[in-house]
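Possible regression after last week's pipeline update?

I re-ran a chain I had predicted before the update to compare outputs. Posting the input and the new output here so someone can diff against the archived version. Not blocking, just want to make sure nothing changed silently.
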Amino acid sequence: MNEALPDVPEVRVVGLPQLTSGFDLVERLDLPMHLKVHGPLEPLGGEQLAQLSERINLRGRGGAGFPFHKKLRSVAEAAIKRGVRPVVVVNGSEDEPACRKDTVLINRAPHLILDGALLCAEAMGARTLVIGVTRESTQRSMEAALAERGLNNGRRSALRARVQRNPVRMVTGAAASLIRSIDGGPAIPPGRKVSASRSGVGGAPTLLSNAETFAQLAIAARIGPERYGNTGLYDEPGTVMLTVSGAVARPMVIEVPTGVPLRYVLQLAGAPPVPQGVLTGGYHGKWIDSATVDEAIISRNSLQQVGGALGAGAILPISQETCPLGESLRVAQWLAEESAGQCGPCYLGLPAAARGMEDILNGGGPAALEAVKQVAKNVKRRGACSHPDGSAMFLESTVKAFTDDLAAHVLGNGCGRPVEGVLPLFEGGKAPTGIPGGGGQEEGPSRQRIYVDWTLCRGHGLCADLLPEVFQLGADGFPTVAQADVPRLAEAKAVRAVRRCPALALRIEEDTRGQSPSSRTNLPVLSQGRGRRALGR
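New output (post-update):
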């Protein structure tokens, strides 16, 4: 079974590096090294930034692909009209198990992201910058980067900058969830769709985009649109950060110019010569079959034309030796568990779709297939966030891409191939018992601690049902402990409890007590050398 991806997997580059410049020199570019590699950055006016973004056709790299120049202008116009200062938010959540590109950038090149965010903040007169993360490593790296710029306190800059840490969960990365958490609420969608450009953090117009988007803006601002356009395709210039995993010999994050053949990217990661299919765009993305792989190149338009999606930049091939429907069932079950539990299409529809997929695998026949199609159709455009839409797109793509296997399961006795669990799903690489491809867990001392956030806990009691080894409920219906060691054998159940908590009140952290300082993963010692400061001083 494919193990879960580390926070910072192997990083490769095709052609000349842009976002990954300096990665061959150090593990993490602190501020002095960042300035040596990338050079200083001069401020730009708001309209200059918008025109730059438009000329390079910069689109959001978090999945939706919204034109960045339109977002910039919309926020600026709303702020001017209302006479308030806007807010800038960097979304570095990246809570999908198959995505690590933003996590890599935050861990290894945090100042490139801050460059782009600070350019926007200065151009629009913003005085608040928030970076949303979900991992301990990204929190440490970004907080260190803010400290290196003197932005970790309110005394050295008019800009207030901070890191917002949220639980690792699929819905946490939604823009509305991040904004709600910044305002002090739970990191779940609010149940109503409001444009962040008009009313975001604290009700102010908010410029929110993902980490790679801001980093791309910083590169373009330094080298200019002409030089930026010399890399990649004419209509989609520049590079793209991809996370390649699944049935590959070497899972990696790779920076490639647009226009590179998908086949070449797969070869770099050691994918099968003839994959059975490739999931493009991640778990809210689309499958393309083996016959289509040779036609695809890395670009948003090309992947759409062959039935795929660039999405969040995740590329996951599977081999001919595994059951594609079984692999997709594992993802469908995970997507169902990621529901925030507050709207019917998500809370009821996605589990029903997963059960329908399981019925197909168990010989449910044409009726089971039609049930899956109907559920996928019913959940679209009816949820409080995009999670049901993305999940439905994944299910519909699975049914469309693997027609031969579908026929074998619907009309026959199945395809006869095992489920190898090659698509990464769970932290620690273990799938809970009972899910195809799952395995048992080793015994031994605890490696994790689970925490209850009392500001979020609402006493639903689900944690005690899912993880009785740790949680019991008191007379008031709330857990009796605020933190506890997780038994090694219960680690998978603890992950399930964290993901299923309706209030997102649980989190898991690695237990480093008793480890020697040298055995812990820490940031490199921050350089104290002097040099020209980037924007934000």
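Follow-up from reviewer: compared with the archived run. Residues 427-444, 516-537 have pLDDT under 50 and may be disordered. Marking as no regression found.
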